C-alpha cells in the first residue's frame, strides 16, 4: 500500500486511506486532506480505478467530520467486497481521484471481477428488522440538508429514513439541538410507528430564529455517540 502513497506524488497530502465497512453507508475523509483542498473540492467526486471504471460519490464538507456519502456503499457492491476493506484515494485535481481497493492480505483486488449478485443489498439496519433499540454506533451519525423556505421558516424538519427508522424503534422522543454559540433548544420528535418518516417538531422554528437560519442555508446535524438525545448543529457559510 505504501507504493500507492509515495509513487508519482509530490506530497503525501495528495492521498488518504479510507476504511470500507459492511455496515456503513458513508466513509470518513482525512481532515488534513479536506482542509488542504477545501477551496477546490466540489460536493461531487469522480473516482477512477486502474482499469477505467468510474464511480461518482457525494462529498459532504463538514468541518467537524468530512464524509463521502451517496455512492460509497455502491462501490462495495460493484467490486463484491466483503468484510472490512481498505481503499486509497489519490487526488488528481478537479475533484477527481484514482481509486485503489485492497482485499485480503493487503493485496489489490481484481478490478474486473465485479459483484457476485446483481441485487444491491443495503446494510441490515436499514431494513425492517425485529429489535427494540438498534445499535446507534452502526448508523451514519449525521445528516446534512440545504433548507427550503418551509424548512427554515416552518415548525418542522424531516430527517433521513435511516435515522427515522432508528427513532421509531427507540425511546427517543426529543432532541436537544445545540448551536454553534452553545445555545440549546429542546425539540420534540415526531416518529409515527405506522409510517416510514420522522420529523423534528416543536422547538425547530425557535432554533432557526435564535440562530438566524435562512432559506438556502446548509446545516449539518451531528449526533453524540454517548448521548443520543444531544445533537450538535453546524451552520455552514456556503451552499451546496
Description:
- It is a single chain.
- By secondary structure, the protein is α+β, with helices and mostly antiparallel strands.
- The chain has 2 domains: 2-113, At1g16640 B3 domain, CATH 2.40.330; 138-235, At1g16640 B3 domain (Beta Barrel), CATH 2.40.330.10.
- Helix content is 16%, strand content 30%.
- The protein is built from 6 helices and 14 strands.
- The protein has helices at 2-6, 31-36, 72-79, 149-153, 161-168, 204-210, and strands spanning 15-20, 27-28, 44-48, 54-60, 67-68, 85-93, 96-102, 142-146, 157-158, 174-178, 184-190, 199-200, 218-223, 230-235.
- The strands form 2 sheets. It has a 7-stranded mixed beta sheet. The chain has a 7-stranded mixed beta sheet with strand order 8-13-14-10-11-12-9.
- Strand 4 and strand 5 (67-68) form a beta hairpin.
- The longest helix has 8 residues, at 72-79.
- The two termini are 34 Å apart.
Structural key phrases:
240 residues; globular; At1g16640 B3 domain; alpha+beta; disordered N terminus; 30% strand; single chain; 16% helix; seven-stranded mixed β-sheet
Question: What is the topology?
Answer:
Layout: H1 2-6, E1 15-20, E2 27-28, H2 31-36, E3 44-48, E4 54-60, E5 67-68, H3 72-79, E6 85-93, E7 96-102, E8 142-146, H4 149-153, E9 157-158, H5 161-168, E10 174-178, E11 184-190, E12 199-200, H6 204-210, E13 218-223, E14 230-235
Parallel strand pairs: 3-7, 10-14
Antiparallel strand pairs: 1-6, 2-5, 3-4, 4-5, 6-7, 8-13, 9-12, 10-11, 11-12, 13-14
The topology string of helices and strands comes to HEEHEEEHEEEHEHEEEHEE
| Anisotropy-based shape | globular
Number of strands: 14
At the fourth level of CATH, the homologous superfamily of the largest domain is: DNA-binding pseudobarrel domain
CATH-level-2 architecture of the largest domain: Beta Barrel
Q: What is the strand arrangement across the widest sheet? A: 1-6-7-3-4-5-2
Mean pLDDT: 76
Amino acid at each position: 500500500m505504501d507504493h500507492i502513497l509515495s509513487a508519482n506524488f509530490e506530497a503525501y497530502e495528495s492521498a488518504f486511506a479510507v476504511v470500507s465497512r459492511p455496515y456503513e453507508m458513508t466513509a470518513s475523509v482525512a481532515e488534513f486532506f479536506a482542509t488542504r483542498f477545501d477551496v477546490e473540492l466540489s460536493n461531487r467526486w469522480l473516482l477512477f480505478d486502474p482499469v477505467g471504471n468510474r464511480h461518482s460519490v457525494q462529498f459532504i464538507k463538514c468541518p467537524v467530520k468530512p464524509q463521502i456519502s451517496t455512492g460509497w456503499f455502491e462501490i462495495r457492491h460493484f467490486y463484491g467486497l466483503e468484510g472490512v476493506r481498505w481503499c486509497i484515494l489519490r487526488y488528481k485535481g478537479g475533484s477527481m481521484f484514482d481509486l485503489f481497493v485492497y482485499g485480503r492480505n493487503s493485496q489489490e483486488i481484481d478490478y474486473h471481477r465485479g459483484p457476485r449478485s446483481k441485487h444491491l443489498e443495503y446494510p441490515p439496519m436499514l431494513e425492517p428488522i425485529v429489535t427494540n433499540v438498534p445499535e446507534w454506533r452502526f448508523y451514519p451519525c449525521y445528516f446534512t440538508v440545504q433548507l427550503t423556505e418551509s424548512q427554515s421558516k416552518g415548525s418542522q424538519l424531516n430527517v433521513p429514513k435511516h435515522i427515522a427508522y432508528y427513532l421509531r424503534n427507540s425511546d427517543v422522543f426529543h432532541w436537544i439541538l445545540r448551536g454553534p454559540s452553545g445555545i440549546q433548544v429542546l425539540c420534540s420528535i415526531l416518529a409515527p410507528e405506522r409510517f416510514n418518516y420522522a420529523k423534528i417538531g416543536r422547538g425547530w422554528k425557535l432554533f432557526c430564529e435564535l440562530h438566524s437560519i435562512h432559506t438556502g442555508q446548509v446545516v449539518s446535524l451531528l449526533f453524540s455517540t454517548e448521548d443520543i438525545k444531544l445533537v450538535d448543529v453546524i451552520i455552514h457559510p456556503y451552499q451546496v
